[in-house]
Write a structure and sequence with these properties.
Length: 284
Amino acid sequence: MRLLSPRIAQKVAMVVLTLSALVVVLPIVCIIVYIFIKGFPAISWAFLTEMPTNGMHSGGIFPAIVGTMYLVTGAILISLPFGIMSAIYLTEYARKNIFTRLVQMAIINLAGVPSIVFGLFGLGLFVILLNFGTSMVAGSLTLSLMILPVIISATEEALSAVPKEFREASLALGATKWQTIWNIVLPSALPGILTGAILGIGRAAGETAPILLTAAAFYLPHLPRSIFDQVMALPYHLYVISTQIPGLNANIQYGTALVLIVIVLGMTLVAIIIRWRFRRKKAW
């Protein structure tokens, strides 16, 4: 015996799902609005473009903004090609056996490893063993390793979603396997690949622990001159001014957090627009 008619059950399910979505979205919206209200008074042209002075009690956060952009850009430029190539091999070339399943399981598990573990690994490998020192290149390499599992997993899913008929039709017309992958599979999977890049950008831009051990400096009133220089970065800068500098105006802390959120959302928005443009061109 049915307790509810199908129409009523449909409405109940819709209400429950809507409330569930609101429970997830509303706290995020409230946090962003709160940070905007508290941080917007600190935003000014000088705050965004000047160097920090007086031990970060005054001046701007320009080096931290530039350092964050450098680190995120470097991490994406390193991890995206290797992540795509790894996913292509695992999806298109590797035989489906216990070894590839173990590799895929390891990739999934690596995506959940705490960021501090990647920071310690980067410290041991790039800073100490390879003698890069605490530098921008060491931080970018560490961040690239941290986001690499996310990009590989997203790319694998995107490649697997491309219908097999596309590959078979291309091969039937005389194309080689690589020509099929390059001209047919990758363009069709590009929106999904960009999704992985978006997730990677968001995680790389907001992490403190990896750059704390490999790249970030407490106070640098100048921009990095080479990839082997230390950099200021917004996540670490926010941590320092929130915990290590007593008596600092709270608006500056919230203003720094607001700038970090805007940068992350801006980079994500650009990637989403690019993904949308490619998705519109898909014929399936």
